[in-house]
Each structure stands twice: as structure tokens, then as C-alpha cells.
């Protein structure tokens, strides 16, 4: 599914808040004619308030059979306009949207200009100072591989193990748009990890950190060394992988 | 100036409503240190609630001299994030943003898909049924030229004379985006004229009207013959012209 995260307090259900899980769960249960035992929905990952998704994956068990196209159309008729179900597949009973992932891909759009662009304000992170794309590209390979990302995890994280593997890390500039875009593909990402990595990379681009600072930051295993967190509005959950073959094919194409 | 019209009740000041004129006027007066006689702002055209602008033009008289760059930066520091001043010029005392126009250019984005796209919902008009771009392109030349557009004006219009000249009318498809885009350049447009023209053109594309229906619609001079109005969210005031030379140059480039 895709959603514009602007008007959501994130994915995860929270009392009194409009969240993706809540509106999605409501639509699924309405489609299922509100069964006595409510249908529970499971997402591949929790996105924060303001974070967008092109490829969030959600699974649930319906009390009776509906074909995939019927589910897609039924849900899209019931969901609010800032969410959409793109594809639906019937999966084996054992499938789990969260625990069966073999990789995830995130996209980040950084807008660099003194003033916010009205049309990008909800869809990019805003950076006042210009960052040099070549400095960023030089630093990126230091993030690739299996590392302890303790320096790059927000304090709210519930993960005990901070070791994650990044398969690919890319950045490119769209000079006519005053944008730098990032794409990260990895085994999984810690709470706020992508946004903290982008904040550090933008500081490298702006010359506020050395191009070769990342190995030291990783080695420090200390969140205070990274400090910043790039704005949620620039982050997109682009794709969740469940098959090694699909993950490898995408990595080979990039 | 540019603005994202989503959260505005249009351009024109209205009691109790958030309008572009109101927030802009507030910023101008704050920059001018709230003079005893408030600075009045004049826009080139009034856009409706939800309509966007890339090139709205506004003029005002400041009680003292500020250089153009100082005005641009000062206003952008004071304006909300869904508006921005792109360029500022000092003009002769006689200049009037509304009465000195020699042409205007509007852009329209029509999204065609059964369901709304979360990321386009505020930035396109949504059309459930597919329209054929070739049928639209065949019909477009019938709108070009000097016509009485009474059939294409909304009932709230205060204009007495409904004769306007359209200099150019174009449409093209973005198949990968499920979009059809329109651009109209003319001497000026009546209330809702562009949105009514788009609604008729989309109906032509969908096969619900004949390709050659426009001459009859114009001749009828009857709003009831056109009926529909395309959604405000797809409309952008792209450019306002004050010089014949600039208008001609743009028309020659298209």
C-alpha cells in the first residue's frame, strides 16, 4: 500500500490519533462486515508521523474467502484518499508481513534552499544550506555492509541488537529542483536510522563534518555523536522484500 | 508568488477564512511595521479554494523604500510555508497587478484512474474514466480565438462581457502517470472558465460528447449546456503577462 504520511500520526495505532494502522484496520473490518472477532492487521514496518510509503506491506486473515482483486477494490472504496492499496495477493497462512522480510528500501528527498517550497514542504526534508553531492557520494560507501548502528538509532528504539546490514546506499542531485535524493537498501533499519544517516550525510555535504567521519561515528556507538535527524516529510518507505531473488534483482539493477 | 492552494479558501479576503490575500497582506504589513494606514495588496487574479499558483502577481505601495531583494527575503521570512515570493521588482507608481495584464497562462493536471492517488489528491483533478488524448487534441482548436464564453462561465461571475480571447490551448498525456495535462493562454479567463473547459474536454475524451461539440456549445451561450466543473485541485495559475513581447515569446515557444 501507499500513503501520504502528512496527515497521519505514523503507522502504529495510538489512542486518539489518526494512524495508518487504525484507518486500514477499520476498512478491513468494514469490508469483512465487522466480524465478532475483529480482523487484526500486521504491517512490515512502523513509519513515523509525516513519513510516506509507496510500498508498505500489510497482512491479515479474513474470516472468509474474497479474491485478491475484490479485496483491492473493496479496500480502496473504503480507505481515505491519502491511502491506497496498490496490489493484493493471497499468501500462505504462515506469511507474516513483518517477520518474513529479507530487505527494505527507503527513499529520501532533501530540498536545499533558504526558503521552503510550498509544493515540496510535505514531501521533502528542508535544508537551508547547500550540500555538495560529491562529498556525500564519497562518504556513502562507509555505510554499506554489516555494522553496529548504535550511533544512528533514536533513543526510543526497542531493538536490543543494533547490528544491521546495508546492501546499497546511493545519492544523486537534481540540480534544477534544488534536491538531493538518497536511496538505502538494507536488511532492516533501526528507529530513525535512515533520517539520522541523512542528517549526517547532509552535514558532510555542507562541510560541517569530514568526508571520512563515518567509520569513527560507527565505532563510537554513541547516539550523541550523530545528533541530527532529517525531517520525516522527506522519507518514503519504498519497497519491502520477501524474496531473496527479487532483492538481488533490484540490487543488480541499481 | 507561488502557493499551494490546498489549505486556502482561495485568494480573495473573506471574513473568518484563511485566504492568500489575508496571509500575504498580514506579512506585508508586518514587514512595513504595521503603518497607521495599512498597506493594501492587489492580486492579478482571484483563484478559488484549492487552486494553486506558480506565478500569481501582487502589487502594493510601501510607505518607504526597501530594495527588491530585501522585500523578497523579508516576506519569505514572514509568510507561511505554503506560500513563497519568487521574485520582486520595483515598478512605476502607475503599475497595477490586475489591470495591466496582457495575458494569463493556466495549467491543469487531470488524473485518470478508478481510485485517487494519495500523492496527487491535492495536486490533480480526479477523473474515474479514461479519456482519449487524441479526441481532446482534435477538439482544442475550436476554443482558440475570440469567443463569447457564456457557456463556460460559472453562475457567480460578476463579468458583464463574456468575450475573451484564447491564444493557445494544448493538451498532452503522461501515460506512465495516468495523467492528462492542459495549458491555456489567453487574454483573461472568466470565473471557473478553465475548469469548465477542462470538464467539457474530458467528457469529449471519454466519448460522452462529440469531438466537434465546442462550436455549438459556444454558440448556445448557455451555461447549462456545459454543466461540469473540473476539480479545483488540478488547476494552477502558471503565469501572468504584463508585456506583449514576453507573451509573444512564450506563445512562439509553445
TrEMBL record, chains A, B:
Under Pfam families, the record lists: PseudoU_synth_1
SUPFAM superfamilies in the cross-refs: Pseudouridine synthase
Q: Which GO terms describe its molecular function?
A: RNA binding; tRNA pseudouridine(38-40) synthase activity
Q: Which GO terms describe its biological process?
A: tRNA pseudouridine synthesis
Tell me which residues make up the Pseudouridine synthase I TruA alpha/beta domain. 2-100, 142-243
Identify the enzyme class: isomerase
Domain of life, source organism: Bacteria
Active site at 48
Q: Kindly list the positions annotated as binding substrate.
A: 106
Look up keyword Isomerase and say if it applies: yes
Q: Which UniProt keywords apply?
A: Isomerase, tRNA processing
Q: Does the keyword Iron apply?
A: no
Q: Per the record, what are the reactions this protein catalyses?
A: uridine(38/39/40) in tRNA = pseudouridine(38/39/40) in tRNA
Question: What EC number(s) is this enzyme filed under?
Answer: 5.4.99.12
Q: How does it assemble?
A: Homodimer.
What the protein does comes down to: Formation of pseudouridine at positions 38, 39 and 40 in the anticodon stem and loop of transfer RNAs.
Q: Which family does it belong to?
A: Belongs to the tRNA pseudouridine synthase TruA family.
Question: What protein name is recorded for this chain?
Answer: tRNA pseudouridine synthase A
Supply the source organism for this entry.
Lactiplantibacillus fabifermentans DSM 21115
